[in-house]
Specification:
The complex is a heterotetramer, with two copies of chain A (291 residues) and two copies of chain B (379 residues). Chain A has nine helices and 14 strands. With 291 residues, chain A is of the alpha/beta class. Chain A has two domains: 111 residues, Rossmann fold (3-Layer(aba) Sandwich); 149 residues, Succinyl-CoA synthetase domains (Rossmann fold, 3-Layer(aba) Sandwich). In chain B, α12 links the parallel β17 and β18. In chain B, α10 packs across α11. The two termini of chain B are 38 Å apart. Chains A and B meet through α1, α4 and α5 of A and α4 and α9 of B.
């Protein structure tokens, strides 16, 4: 078991023939992800590295039975690409594209919600279920199959955390990069519920950031719905107020969204928060009573 | 992206939202002429892209021409949160009997535009939010429905008791939402929105921020941008694919990825050091990018040590190492560099670095501690 | 039993203080309809003929528990009024207003569908369950409680049909005027299903018109889903092509929407079609084996 | 409301939809000048608000100036389905290699705007619909989603095989949908949409109808209305709250309600008579309305008998009777009137009528038969 992606994932890549799309398609395929189709308007009928290319996601889904789509199209087109995937009938959409206008995401998330289609991103590294499916731009080699579920608003910080876990012998069930944009698809709550329901996941790592109140809401959700151990890390403890640290979300507005508040919210409900990344594996081992 | 109050109110005017009569002035003489034209009293307001102007003394009521002159002298050239006041807005003094707050922004939780309104206008809304959250009414807007007349009326009835104000308010909310959509705003705010003695709604102040990701489709908005020197540096960095924010410390940081960059700063702080910047070099690793990044770091005279923290994912560490070595070949760097490479092809990368006779460290904690040690040596 | 409205109907009247609204509110109240609230922005707090007036439908629903709304506001405001009712949480909306722009109705019907709220109209006379609730502008005195269900695209023609039924001793379960606009709420199919499911209804009268293919679709639906006897009448047998006969729908475009086609569609599936209104009660009696 | 081809194409042009170069002309001389300016060959097309111009000989290709003159002479002044041709459109002759049909209209079943497209352009779409319905692709448009780029592309891929045409088509569909919404259209049609020898999509013809109920919010569109004499009468009637359509028969009808009015005509036809009109006097029953209605009926010289059929619902029959009596007091009516009143307060109404010494009948069938009998007496 795992969440969202696995051996049954049949992936269609939107924007597969572009620079990023083709590079990461190769990486995902190399990892063993079952990529069944690519979409690139005007290139339908071609075959790229053994993967058939279609003009529309609808054609791809009808022909190949794809159930998951990953999006690499340029940001101004990404909102529409998300809706195209939702319209075509996949169950899960992962949007990697960075810099998608927020109102495009308001429209796209609303549309997918009505269609009952799940979305991860935009502006996210994707997700992975080790040894089953890599759907994103994460470096597959650092992951190891296991029972720690991980969710994060950032990319490379996730990789650092995962390496630390893997080095400590702690494998992962599924690791999800939810992205740092103001309006995004699945968020902490939904993923916490999925990990809670996933029999393979025994502990959960939540990597948060300054800005917004998503971590505070996650803490409330954990209190109400999650019985599995959760440990957390909040990036931006040293960030000054009013400055956006790369992610649109990573900005402290006056008096809220600070790391202190988020850490306090987690600790108040008994979720230990690591002050340094290196402490995460230790907290997990403690939670799982390993060693 | 932020714009000035007077620019926001110009946009409001274009949508027939009533704003105060006002004139932008760049000198004391212009202020006096404006006061003459508008008639006393006037309000002289600093136009800077920072909040808290009032508290900083950047807003003054002038009942006489002498007072107007004095206000202009005091405010022009004043420093507000690092911004020098180069222009002021001279606005007619308006008599009003109540103040409201109205703001539209993006709500992460409902994934929609949200309208916030409060009868406690005139003060900073964050303070109201903290002290008296129930005083702020929140209305998430269904993206399919938009700000339909009945919905706008519902909000207006919640805010106003007089039916004439309800009608004016409903009309105003519809226009504000249209402005928000039309301009890809991230914030549209009127604070205070006042009820004049004549019973008319009037925007006394105005604020607009915009979605940076959508500026490409609004060249007219983008043209209003007035970056400070620091912001210009940040924009230049962005053009090179770098995200750079200058801070006050002395350890220059170069990291790939925003979250890791923040975490790197956190670790430095944790061990008692002070990061000089946030710098995310993103996913690529061309030598040019590393050179640009090094130039950025070295242009900050406060920087005494450079700490490089790369986690190779898709980015390969050997590529970064090559880039760094090429960069160092092409430029003079006379401060110490602490390098930590990890992840994809880390071994190859580390070998390139050590062949170049540069020291490397094994973990982020070690990197931070070493950087701090080196800074303390210098001082 | 009956469909849509009955003794449990708690009605709110949107536009109650207007000319038409106040007139018909009095008529409905006189008939015995349970009118619990009126809505008229700016007049909230007033009390008109014993009925409390609210500023918004939401206030009215929250305060009185109204479950049905009838709309008498001017046509340019009607689309928005329909959505206000849908947003406020009533179960059924009846829009009497005539001349509502079609694109407003596209938006409103779509919104109500998403909210799971039923709509009748716009541009319709409303509906009645005799002796229980009159929600519309139909003349209550011509109706008689009974077991014939009736649905019609027109107003006064319905009254004529109902009088003929009542004169013949044939009472009605519920009579619904669905309106003649290009985009409207409940249509033949939905109502046929409701009458089919209503134990009190024993026979159904369908009054159609030239234009469109609603009657042809109804015939197909009857064939597939309706076991109760249905009899039909089609107005406009003598109408020339290309002329709009009052209702936006009542226009024959070249080669389709004619009375002949509609009559043929019904007769092909065994639904008898009256050539003259006077024949309707006879066909019903025959179907119910009365006399 | 309908507009002319050239007006529809002017609207298309405003949305950057490529249309043929063309000039509207009101005389043969203008046609020749236009042909001179555009260069031969040209197509001369009657501009009338009726379909089937081509079949009626209202569209002619002219390869020479003489042919252009001849075409103009033939077409100007021609009668097409009761419309006199007062102006023609002279359009450049375009070489093309395929013809498509594209139309947007309202779909009652999905309750949305629907795009219909076919590779069988150039012929009447109703004929394609009858003979080869599969040749018409239908795409209902989700009102929330609108004609989003991916959806437009999906349609375009279904219609075109060349990718350049797909891109042009997707762009065109988005613009057509925008026109539809912006103008509250009920039909937007390009037939044929051609692919020129240069591989460009071009609207060779254009058609737009508008939602009469929405004209109030589009005064610019309403200003394009060119009603015929019959239509002017219908519009005047509408202003008086009456819906009137003139037909060919001799029994003038006055009925309340559209459905009942149609049924009344049907009953007349059933018994062998011929209705002279459709006339719905609606719900009110003021004497003025009845007078206006009587005037309308009497202004048609074909009318030999008037049949009045009122079903009192909310309308009270005594009110109608009063109105009718007042009307008859004020005007001279020298043809027989058959009156049937039924429903609310019918007894009172019938008494008023019989007190005025006018005959009444009891049922619609009786009314129709009596009217026919009286017409036959007159003839």
């Amino acid at each position: 078991m795992s969440i969202l992606v696995n051996k049954n994932t049949k992936l269609v890549v939107q924007g597969m023939t572009g620079r990023d799309g083709s590079f990461h398609t190769a990486k995902m395929k190399e990892y063993g992800t079952n990529i069944v189709a690519g979409v690139s308007p005007g290139k339908g009928g071609q075959n790229v590295n053994g993967i058939p290319v279609f003009n529309t996601v609808e054609d791809a889904v009808k022909t190949t039975g794809a159930n998951t789509s990953i999006i690499f199209v340029p940001a101004p087109l990404a909102g529409d690409a998300i809706m195209e995937a939702g319209d075509a009938g996949v169950e899960l959409v992962i949007c990697i594209s960075e810099g998608v206008p927020t109102l495009d995401m308001v429209k796209a998330t609303n549309y997918l919600k009505k269609k009952g289609v799940k979305l991860i991103g935009a502006n996210c590294p994707g997700l992975i279920t080790p040894d089953e499916a890599l759907v994103g731009i994460l470096p597959g080699n650092i992951f190891k199959k296991g029972n720690v579920g991980l969710m994060s608003r950032s990319g490379t910080l996730t990789y650092l955390m995962v390496s630390l876990l893997t080095q400590a012998g702690l494998g992962q069930s599924t690791c999800v990069g939810i992205g740092g944009d103001p309006v995004a698809g699945l968020y902490y709550q939904e993923l916490l519920q999925m990990f809670q329901d996933d029999p393979e996941t025994e502990a959960i790592v939540l990597i948060g950031e300054i800005g917004g109140d998503a971590e505070e809401r996650a803490a409330q959700f954990i209190k109400d719905h999650v019985t599995k151990p959760v440990v957390a890390f909040i990036a931006g403890q040293s960030a000054p107020p009013g400055k956006r640290m790369g992610h649109a979300g990573a900005i402290i507005s006056s008096g809220s969204g600070t790391a202190e508040e988020k850490i306090a919210a987690f600790e108040a409900i008994g979720v230990p928060v690591a002050r340094l990344p290196i402490e995460i594996p230790l907290l997990i081992k403690k939670a799982l009573k390993i060693d | 992206m932020k714009i000035h109050e007077y620019q926001a109110k110009e946009i409001f005017s274009r949508y027939s939202i009533p704003v105060t009569k006002e004139i932008v002035c760049y000198s004391t003489d212009e202020v006096c002429a404006a006061a003459e034209k508008l008639g006393l009293p006037v309000v002289v307001k600093a136009q800077v892209l920072a909040g808290g102007r009032g508290k900083a003394g950047g807003v003054k009521l002038a009942r006489t021409m002498d007072a107007a002159r004095e206000a202009a002298d005091q405010i022009l050239g004043m420093d507000i949160k690092g911004y020098t006041v180069e222009k002021v807005l001279v606005a007619e003094g308006v008599k009003f009997n109540s103040e409201f707050y109205v703001g539209l922004t993006i709500d992460r939780n409902t994934k929609s535009v949200i309208l916030m309104a409060s009868a406690e206008g005139g003060v900073e809304i964050e303070e109201v939010a903290k002290d008296n959250p129930e005083a702020i009414l929140k209305f998430p807007i269904d993206p399919d429905l938009g700000m339909s007349p009945f919905f706008a009326r519902k909000i207006a009835f919640a805010l106003f008791s007089d039916f004439s104000l309800v009608k004016q308010g409903a009309d105003l909310f519809q226009k504000l939402y249209k402005i928000f959509l039309d301009t890809d705003a991230s914030l549209v705010e009127i604070n205070p929105l006042v009820v004049t003695d004549e019973g008319k709604l009037l925007a006394l102040d105005g604020k607009m921020n915009f979605d940076d990701n959508a500026l490409d489709r609004h060249p007219d908005i983008e043209a209003l941008n007035e970056p400070t020197e620091d912001e210009k540096k940040e924009l230049e960095a962005k053009d090179s694919g770098l995200t750079y924010i200058r801070l006050e410390g002395n350890i220059g940081c170069m990291v790939n990825g925003a979250g890791l960059a923040m975490a790197s700063m956190d670790v430095i702080k944790h061990y008692g050091g002070n990061p000089a910047n946030f710098l995310d070099i993103g996913g690529s690793s061309s030598p040019q990018k590393v050179i640009d990044a090094m130039n950025l770091l070295l242009s900050d005279k406060n920087v005494k040590v450079i700490m490089i923290n790369i986690f190779g994912g898709i980015t390969r560490c050997d590529d970064v190492a090559h880039g760094l070595v090429s960069a160092l070949d092409q430029m003079k760097v006379d401060i110490p560099i602490v390098i930590r490479l990890s992840g994809t092809n880390a071994e190859e990368g580390l070998k390139i670095i050590s062949d170049y006779n540069l020291p490397t460290v094994k973990s982020l904690s070690e990197a931070a501690q070493e950087a701090i040690r080196l800074v303390n040596q210098v001082n």
